[in-house]
Design a protein that fits this description.
alpha/beta, Amino acid/polyamine transporter I, 2 domains, two-stranded antiparallel ribbon, 28 helices, 8 strands, 57% helix, elongated
Length: 665
């Protein structure tokens, strides 16, 4: 373990959309967001102003929710009694409309988008706000909520690409006249598309992301057009907008109604992206895009599907593809596949961004994170996560084979993340906004009951596949908890044995060592104690450089840190200076770049005559560490496979000296 190179403490990251950076790579290309936007942290820029931001949000924020019409209506009707009857169709349409209204519009657009962390949204932003509201405390419960949310997102991140792409390509089997010939090739084609999608991640998405908005906007217009064409099949479908049809439908279906709710929930998967990507597009463009474009397009399509099934009950088997006119079937199928790939891309980049945040916040070990663009923020690629997601997605294809089977595993992770948001929102309401307790309780109970109803309905699908994201989530929670606990034990033991910096300075004053020319930079997480690398250098080499800098890299509880607040330089004595470099949890550390800012504060040095000293610890398992022996071994495994701190901090390898020590945990 490199001496004190773990990021500073902060709130754990979690979100369906990878939190406020959930779709950073897509965002950067779709909006032209750059580090030098000049609009403050996290604010996107676009040449077309408000309209451009709204269009960009359509491509990035709403890609996931935009693919739900491919399968949501079909699944809800399939689980209901008398699938194509008027009662079932009107009931499902009513439930779909009110789910979109209550969860997406009321919960996220109206309420949660008001809770922002310097313009950024997402579960991580809520967590930081909750910590601030509690006076900067970090209760275990808040940390646990964050870890659970992060773990659930990874589970969802594996399922979304598979269900989106398979759901679109299943249209091959419905192709007029030739569907039976293409049906056997649906799965291989989906696998090929997904493999290609993951293989191009290393090249970045800047060159194609600018098309995400227009393509997805065209997709939503197509959804609306198809709906308008078929509403005339049975205009009485408009009655489905009334809430009592949904209530009566649930009552008449009894226990089966809960299963149906799990399918209805498919229409709101992706809703959290509204909040998570708020910082990239702003509240107003996202709200406008949802209220005046995305929501109407979705509802027109669901109404059209319902009217088609009322007129032709046999269409309930696959209402979306049955509503496409034969003359435009293939163009719509290609557009559906493109929209599905964009939705999958958003989740993949969300996983990359979430990983970066988790590493910055110290709940995952350092991992190889590569930038794929020198000009656009958020353009990152994480090889290990990309490979794991690809393996997971292909495994799902082999296990479940159809979108109907995949939807059984879909939803539980999303409902869990939404429930985490609700619990954190209670803290914001009560202690940050100082609302009366009854108002905070009323809000959390209202939204919490809706979340719990959908969670219960999705839990009923555990035997059919919902166990998968739960098992994966539990494994990731254990991994994150082990890393956090293990690093805490190591830091505590090292601190007990460390020499206070003040004592070391007294010893050096009493017995000055030999001085070497140049500058030495020692990385440490605790500048009040002497870095291990400094002590070993004095012990073994018996030298001290002319200039010595004690460098600490901290992670702030905000998404980004302005350049003016990036560094803090303090003179300890003529030989030593203390330098603190701060990064937001959405930023990638670059130590040499930050050191360039020091010249303005009087610390001048030549990078080629500067040596970076890092302490690398060899950890040995012990049954008396406070963790079980198996957990010690898991921590050591994670430690050995962590990325090299030299690469993580972008330090020139030829200027690094590593000095080792052994620690027992």
């Amino acid at each position: 373990m490199a001496d004190d190179v773990a990021p500073g403490p902060g709130a754990p990251a979690a979100s369906k959309g990878g939190d406020s950076a959930s779709r950073n790579a897509a965002v950067a290309g779709a909006t032209g967001y750059t580090d030098g936007s000049g609009l403050g942290p996290g604010v996107a820029t676009h040449g077309s102003g408000f309209f451009g931001l709204a269009l960009g949000s359509v491509g990035v924020v709403f890609g996931d929710i935009g693919t739900s019409p491919l399968y949501a209506m079909r699944e809800a009707l399939a689980h209901s009694r008398g699938g194509g009857t008027a009662e079932a169709v009107l009931g499902v349409v009513s439930l779909v409309f009110w789910a979109l209204l209550l969860i997406v519009t009321l919960k996220y657009v109206v309420f949660l988008m008001r809770a922002d962390n310097k313009g950024e949204g997402g579960t991580l932003a809520l967590m930081a706000l909750a910590q601030r509201a509690l006076g900067g405390q970090r209760p275990v419960a808040v940390f646990f909520l964050g870890v659970v949310g992060a773990a659930l997102f990874y589970g969802d991140g594996i399922i979304t690409p598979a269900v989106s792409v398979v759901g679109a390509l299943e249209g091959l089997g419905e192709a007029p006249g030739v569907g039976r010939y293409f049906a056997p090739f649906i799965l291989p084609t989906a696998a090929a598309v997904l493999i290609g999608l993951f293989l191009v991640q290393s090249r970045g998405t800047a060159s194609v992301a600018r098309f995400f908005g227009p393509i997805t906007a065209l997709w939503f217009l197509t959804l609306a057009g198809l709906g308008v064409i078929h509403i005339g099949d049975d205009p009485s479908i408009i009655r489905g907008l009334l809430p009592h049809y949904g209530v009566l439908f649930l009552i008449n279906n009894g226990l089966v109604g809960f299963v149906i709710l799990g399918s209805v929930f498919l229409v709101v998967t992706g809703a959290e992206a509204l909040y998570a990507d708020m910082g990239h597009f702003g509240k107003a463009p996202i709200r406008a895009a949802w209220l005046f474009f995305v929501l109407p397009c979705l509802m027109l399509n669901y109404l059209g599907q319902g009217a088609l099934v009322l007129a032709e009950p046999e269409a309930a088997e696959n209402p979306f593809f049955r509503m496409i006119p034969e003359m435009v079937y293939w163009p719509v199928l290609l557009l559906a596949t493109a929209a599905a790939c964009i939705a999958a891309q958003a989740v993949i980049t969300g996983a990359f961004s979430l990983t970066q945040q988790a590493v910055q916040l110290g709940i995952l070990p350092r991992i190889d994170i590569r930038r794929t663009s020198e000009t656009q923020a958020g353009q990152i690629y994480v090889p290990a996560i990309n490979a794991l997601l690809l393996v997971g997605v292909l495994t799902l294809l082999v296990m479940f084979r159809t979108s109907s089977n995949l939807t059984a595993a879909y939803g539980i992770a999303v409902t869990g993340s939404m429930f985490v948001d609700t619990l954190l929102f209670f803290i914001i309401l009560r202690w940050k906004w100082n609302r009366p307790m009854w108002q905070a309780v009323l809000a959390v109970v209202s939204f919490g009951l809706i979340d719990l109803v959908f969670i219960s309905s999705n839990l009923l699908k555990i035997p059919q596949g919902a166990w998968l994201p739960l098992v994966l989530g539990a494994a990731l929670v254990m991994l994150m908890w082990t890393w956090r606990r293990g690093t805490g034990i190591v830091v505590a033991k090292v601190k007990r044995d460390a020499v206070p910096m003040a004592d070391l300075l007294e010893m050096l004053r009493a017995r000055p060592p030999h001085r070497a020319p140049g500058t030495a930079i020692f990385l440490t997480s605790d500048p009040s104690t002497a870095p291990v690398a400094l002590m070993h250098n004095l012990k073994h080499n018996r030298v001290l450089h002319e200039k010595n800098v004690i460098l600490t890299v901290e992670t702030a509880e905000t998404p980004r840190v302005p350049e003016k607040d990036r560094i803090s330089l303090e003179t300890i004595n003529p030989d030593f200076r203390k330098l603190t470099v701060r990064y937001g949890f959405m930023e990638q550390p670059n130590v040499p770049k930050a050191l360039g800012l020091c010249r303005k504060q009087g610390l001048k040095f030549d990078i080629m005559s500067t040596s970076f000293f890092l302490g690398r610890r060899s950890v040995v398992a012990s049954a008396t560490s406070g963790m079980p022996l198996w957990q010690d071994k898991l921590f050591i495994f994670l430690l050995k496979n962590a990325a090299n701190p030299t690469d993580f901090y972008h330090i020139p390898p030829g200027r690094v000296v590593e000095l080792g020590a052994q620690v027992t945990v």
